[in-house]
Amino acid sequence: MEDKYSSNVLSGGKLGMVEVPNSRLTRYIVLLIVTKVLKALGIFESYDILKVVHIVQFIFILKLGSAVILLFFQKPFSSGKVVSKRQWIKLLKHAVFSCIISLLGFFGLTLCGPLRTLLLFEHSDVVVIALLGVLFTGTGGGAIQDQRRCSLHHRRDLPPPL
Fold first, then answer.
1. 83-135 pLDDT tens trace
2. How many helices (H) and strands (E) does the chain have?
3. Membrane: is it a keyword of this entry (predicted)?
Protein backbone atom coordinates (compact mmCIF):
# COMPACT_ATOMS: atom_id res chain seq x y z
CA MET A 1 0.00 0.00 0.00
CA GLU A 2 2.87 2.36 0.81
CA ASP A 3 4.57 1.90 -2.57
CA LYS A 4 1.28 2.76 -4.31
CA TYR A 5 1.46 6.32 -3.01
CA SER A 6 5.24 6.67 -2.89
CA SER A 7 5.35 8.91 -5.97
CA ASN A 8 2.77 11.28 -4.47
CA VAL A 9 4.18 14.78 -4.05
CA LEU A 10 2.41 15.37 -0.75
CA SER A 11 3.51 12.15 0.91
CA GLY A 12 7.02 12.24 -0.54
CA GLY A 13 7.93 15.50 1.15
CA LYS A 14 9.10 17.01 -2.13
CA LEU A 15 7.30 20.33 -1.74
CA GLY A 16 9.40 23.43 -1.59
CA MET A 17 10.43 26.58 -3.42
CA VAL A 18 10.21 26.51 -7.18
CA GLU A 19 13.29 27.82 -8.95
CA VAL A 20 12.45 30.63 -11.39
CA PRO A 21 15.07 32.67 -13.23
CA ASN A 22 15.16 36.17 -11.74
CA SER A 23 15.40 37.99 -15.07
CA ARG A 24 12.26 36.33 -16.45
CA LEU A 25 10.32 36.89 -13.25
CA THR A 26 11.39 40.54 -13.10
CA ARG A 27 10.19 41.14 -16.66
CA TYR A 28 6.76 39.74 -15.82
CA ILE A 29 6.47 41.76 -12.63
CA VAL A 30 7.44 44.98 -14.44
CA LEU A 31 4.96 44.16 -17.21
CA LEU A 32 2.24 43.52 -14.62
CA ILE A 33 2.92 46.83 -12.87
CA VAL A 34 2.92 48.75 -16.16
CA THR A 35 -0.40 47.24 -17.23
CA LYS A 36 -1.99 47.96 -13.84
CA VAL A 37 -0.84 51.60 -14.02
CA LEU A 38 -2.14 51.92 -17.58
CA LYS A 39 -5.47 50.42 -16.54
CA ALA A 40 -5.75 52.91 -13.67
CA LEU A 41 -4.89 55.82 -15.97
CA GLY A 42 -7.46 54.56 -18.48
CA ILE A 43 -10.19 54.48 -15.84
CA PHE A 44 -9.34 58.00 -14.66
CA GLU A 45 -9.25 59.30 -18.25
CA SER A 46 -12.54 57.54 -19.03
CA TYR A 47 -14.11 59.31 -16.05
CA ASP A 48 -12.93 62.68 -17.36
CA ILE A 49 -14.18 61.92 -20.88
CA LEU A 50 -17.56 60.69 -19.59
CA LYS A 51 -18.13 64.13 -18.04
CA VAL A 52 -18.24 65.54 -21.58
CA VAL A 53 -19.45 62.67 -23.79
CA HIS A 54 -22.59 60.56 -23.37
CA ILE A 55 -22.02 56.97 -22.21
CA VAL A 56 -23.50 55.36 -25.34
CA GLN A 57 -21.34 57.48 -27.66
CA PHE A 58 -18.26 56.68 -25.59
CA ILE A 59 -18.93 52.92 -25.74
CA PHE A 60 -19.56 53.12 -29.50
CA ILE A 61 -16.27 54.95 -30.11
CA LEU A 62 -14.39 52.57 -27.78
CA LYS A 63 -15.79 49.40 -29.38
CA LEU A 64 -15.33 50.74 -32.91
CA GLY A 65 -11.71 51.69 -32.22
CA SER A 66 -11.02 48.27 -30.70
CA ALA A 67 -12.65 46.54 -33.69
CA VAL A 68 -10.57 48.49 -36.22
CA ILE A 69 -7.34 47.70 -34.37
CA LEU A 70 -8.24 44.00 -34.10
CA LEU A 71 -9.26 43.84 -37.78
CA PHE A 72 -5.92 45.34 -38.77
CA PHE A 73 -3.86 42.89 -36.69
CA GLN A 74 -5.89 39.69 -37.03
CA LYS A 75 -7.06 40.01 -40.67
CA PRO A 76 -10.06 37.67 -40.16
CA PHE A 77 -11.53 38.04 -43.66
CA SER A 78 -8.39 37.13 -45.58
CA SER A 79 -7.73 33.75 -43.98
CA GLY A 80 -9.43 31.03 -41.98
CA LYS A 81 -12.76 29.24 -42.14
CA VAL A 82 -16.07 30.87 -43.04
CA VAL A 83 -18.21 31.74 -40.02
CA SER A 84 -21.45 29.76 -39.94
CA LYS A 85 -24.89 31.20 -39.21
CA ARG A 86 -24.94 29.60 -35.76
CA GLN A 87 -21.58 31.21 -34.93
CA TRP A 88 -22.86 34.61 -36.10
CA ILE A 89 -25.77 34.28 -33.67
CA LYS A 90 -23.36 33.45 -30.84
CA LEU A 91 -21.17 36.39 -31.83
CA LEU A 92 -24.17 38.73 -31.84
CA LYS A 93 -25.29 37.53 -28.39
CA HIS A 94 -21.78 37.96 -27.04
CA ALA A 95 -21.56 41.47 -28.51
CA VAL A 96 -24.90 42.51 -26.99
CA PHE A 97 -24.01 41.19 -23.54
CA SER A 98 -20.58 42.78 -23.76
CA CYS A 99 -22.13 46.15 -24.59
CA ILE A 100 -24.60 45.83 -21.70
CA ILE A 101 -21.80 44.99 -19.27
CA SER A 102 -19.73 47.91 -20.58
CA LEU A 103 -22.74 50.21 -20.25
CA LEU A 104 -23.30 49.17 -16.65
CA GLY A 105 -19.59 49.46 -15.85
CA PHE A 106 -19.26 52.97 -17.27
CA PHE A 107 -22.55 54.01 -15.67
CA GLY A 108 -21.09 52.83 -12.36
CA LEU A 109 -17.95 54.82 -13.15
CA THR A 110 -19.98 57.99 -13.57
CA LEU A 111 -21.87 57.35 -10.32
CA CYS A 112 -19.03 56.15 -8.06
CA GLY A 113 -15.99 57.87 -9.46
CA PRO A 114 -12.72 56.44 -10.69
CA LEU A 115 -11.15 55.45 -7.37
CA ARG A 116 -14.05 53.33 -6.15
CA THR A 117 -14.44 51.79 -9.61
CA LEU A 118 -10.74 50.94 -9.72
CA LEU A 119 -10.88 49.34 -6.28
CA LEU A 120 -13.97 47.37 -7.28
CA PHE A 121 -12.33 46.13 -10.50
CA GLU A 122 -9.12 45.13 -8.78
CA HIS A 123 -10.79 43.43 -5.82
CA SER A 124 -14.01 42.20 -7.43
CA ASP A 125 -13.62 38.65 -6.11
CA VAL A 126 -13.30 39.91 -2.52
CA VAL A 127 -16.32 42.20 -2.98
CA VAL A 128 -18.47 39.34 -4.29
CA ILE A 129 -17.41 37.05 -1.44
CA ALA A 130 -18.18 39.77 1.13
CA LEU A 131 -21.57 40.44 -0.47
CA LEU A 132 -22.44 36.74 -0.43
CA GLY A 133 -21.27 36.54 3.18
CA VAL A 134 -23.57 39.38 4.17
CA LEU A 135 -26.52 37.93 2.27
CA PHE A 136 -26.27 34.31 3.40
CA THR A 137 -24.86 34.59 6.91
CA GLY A 138 -25.83 36.65 9.91
CA THR A 139 -22.66 38.73 9.85
CA GLY A 140 -22.75 42.29 8.66
CA GLY A 141 -26.52 42.78 8.88
CA GLY A 142 -26.32 45.11 11.86
CA ALA A 143 -29.07 47.52 10.87
CA ILE A 144 -31.76 44.86 10.53
CA GLN A 145 -30.76 43.15 13.76
CA ASP A 146 -30.71 46.48 15.64
CA GLN A 147 -34.13 47.30 14.25
CA ARG A 148 -35.52 43.98 15.52
CA ARG A 149 -34.03 44.56 18.96
CA CYS A 150 -35.55 48.05 19.09
CA SER A 151 -38.99 46.80 18.14
CA LEU A 152 -38.82 44.07 20.82
CA HIS A 153 -37.58 46.59 23.37
CA HIS A 154 -40.45 48.99 22.67
CA ARG A 155 -43.04 46.23 22.94
CA ARG A 156 -41.96 45.49 26.51
CA ASP A 157 -42.42 49.12 27.49
CA LEU A 158 -46.02 49.26 26.27
CA PRO A 159 -48.73 49.07 28.91
CA PRO A 160 -50.62 45.79 29.03
CA PRO A 161 -53.75 45.64 26.87
CA LEU A 162 -57.10 46.25 28.59
1. 888 998 998 999 898 888 888 889 988 998 998 888 887 777 777 788 788 88
2. 7, 0
3. yes
What is the value of pTM for the model shown?
0.59
Which residues have a Cβ under 8 Å from the Cβ of 152 and sit 6 or more positions away?
A: none
d(CA 11, CA 16): 13
CB atoms within 10 A of CB 118: 19
The Cα–Cα gap between 67 and 127 comes to 31
* Contact criterion met (CB below 8 Å) for 64 and 73: no
